[in-house]
Amino acid sequence: MAATTPERPVAAAPPRRKAGRHRGEGQWGMGHHTPLNANEQFKKDDDGLNVRTRIETIYSKAGFDSIDPSDLRGRMRWWGLYTQRKPGIDGGKTAVLAPEELDDKHFMLRVRVDGGRLTVRQLRAIGEVSEEYARGTADITDRQNIQLHWIRIEDVPAIWEKLEAVGLSTTEACGDCPRVIIGSPVAGVAADEIIDGTPAVEEIHDRYIGSPEFSNLPRKFKTAVSGSPVQDVVHEINDVAFVGVVHPEHGPGFDLWVGGGLSTSPRLAERLGAWVPLAEVADVWAGVVGIFRDYGYRRLRNRARLKYLMADWGPARFRQVLEEEYLGRKLVDGPAPDEPSSRWRDHVGVHRQRDGRFYVGFAPRVGRVDGATLTKVAELAEAHGSDRLRTTVEQKMIILDVAEDRVDSLVAGLEALDFQVAPSPFRRATLACTGIEFCKLAIVETKARGARLIDELERRMPDFQEPVSININGCPNACARIQTADIGLKGQLVLDEHGNQVEGYQVHLGGALGLEAGFGRKVRGLKVTSDELPDYVERVLTRFEAQREAGERFAT
Ligand code: SF4
């Protein structure tokens, strides 16, 4: 689709600069401990993890209005709680109103699902919490979490009790700390797996999540671990990633990537050229997080991600500091991973496991499910002999461990819930962030718009089979990874044909992860209104089909 993509995108790397030269960066490791902004101040005043006690003993009893503002818009995130947007406030007011005017007095609650790993009992518990406390809401996120909405502060202790009874938590699901650890959703079962990263995901979680050692980072910290040859964890855009690779002498292990991230200055992670054996992943992870904690920039929130330090240091210096100051030993040099073995990285469909049973991946529309349906999925899995489910970074789900003679029945049961196992490319690869329904930063609607776009494209283009990703964001942030999509849609207000301000999108084309990873380019001046969106996408895809050469895929 080169015709509409001016030039191949590259990672937007800020110029390299000697770290620490600027006294104002607030790096602890350079002796700068004075808080330089309000976020650093509230983190210094009290650890985000400590808010749990106040939620349990004060706020849940005295109600929303009793919550201290620096807890409400700060520390509660360390327990997965964000205030949600008051209904009916249009996107034009997002940047105008004060935070308290946007607050609905209900919360979004993010349940972390490390490695996307769920048991039947856990999924059933989430379904029940959704039904009982969250008005039935449940969204699968593009980081394998499940998010609930309409949560009242009064109900939070009871929700924690119910989730924690089945081994789930909301600890550090948001906030300036190590977020959910993304893992290959088919770890330990895929027939083509290079190495199973599950023990590393579990060790990092058990040793470090909820620990004060890393509960005050400059900003959020994202981790990905996958030993799958399809590289199914978007490792290129995580702060740290471990990617399965076979070392010619030492065998299967992980290639270490550092410093990826999206948002307003997207940057692909860089390889440090180091091979890490499974048993050392947690220690190396802790070293990388330690560097971020100690040397990460804390002065400006928009420069407080690891990617900025990585851009200034470069991979060689980063590796040297990691080895000398944090690990006390050299890392083993290692090879780069092979290119991903498949364009699809979502595991949708029916696939044979290494033990001869099958896993079945299915596609909700844009990750939107609901509590009652999640409970039905749990029952369906159990009735077909499975106790293991997975969420994926593509907002999809997988049921593992299905005997061959039970597959057809399971597929029929899923499709009766409108979860297709052989979906159209549109249903399979359209992502949408939370958007204006609940997000206080949103400018436009996303979930319903995405679902309608899928339905419309399926109706208009029933024979289109090319893998094409369409990612929809409700604002200039990057929660739905628009820069890495074939068609990325960044929500903003645009002018319609009559000159009226309406909801719409700035279009980015040609992004990709995996093969030829790079960021989509903003097409100058190309904005579409929400109403025009199906027509626009249909036009782009029809032109691609008509003009493509043999073997050409959408992003090339
Ligand atoms: Fe909210 Fe913007 Fe993120 Fe969407 S991209 S969830 S609108 S912050």
UniProtKB/TrEMBL annotation:
It comes from Streptomyces varsoviensis. Its EC number is 1.8.7.1. Residues 1-43 are annotated as: Disordered. The lineage of its organism: Bacteria, Bacillati, Actinomycetota, Actinomycetes, Kitasatosporales. It catalyses: hydrogen sulfide + 6 oxidized [2Fe-2S]-[ferredoxin] + 3 H2O = sulfite + 6 reduced [2Fe-2S]-[ferredoxin] + 7 H(+). Transmembrane segments: none annotated. InterPro entries: NIR_SIR_4Fe-4S, NiRdtase/SiRdtase_haem-b_fer, Nit/Sulf_reduc_fer-like_dom_sf, NO2/SO3_Rdtase_4Fe4S_dom, NO2/SO3_Rdtase_4Fe4S_sf, NO2/SO3_Rdtase_FeS/sirohaem_BS. Residues 1-14 have a biased composition (Low complexity). This is assimilatory sulfite reductase (ferredoxin).
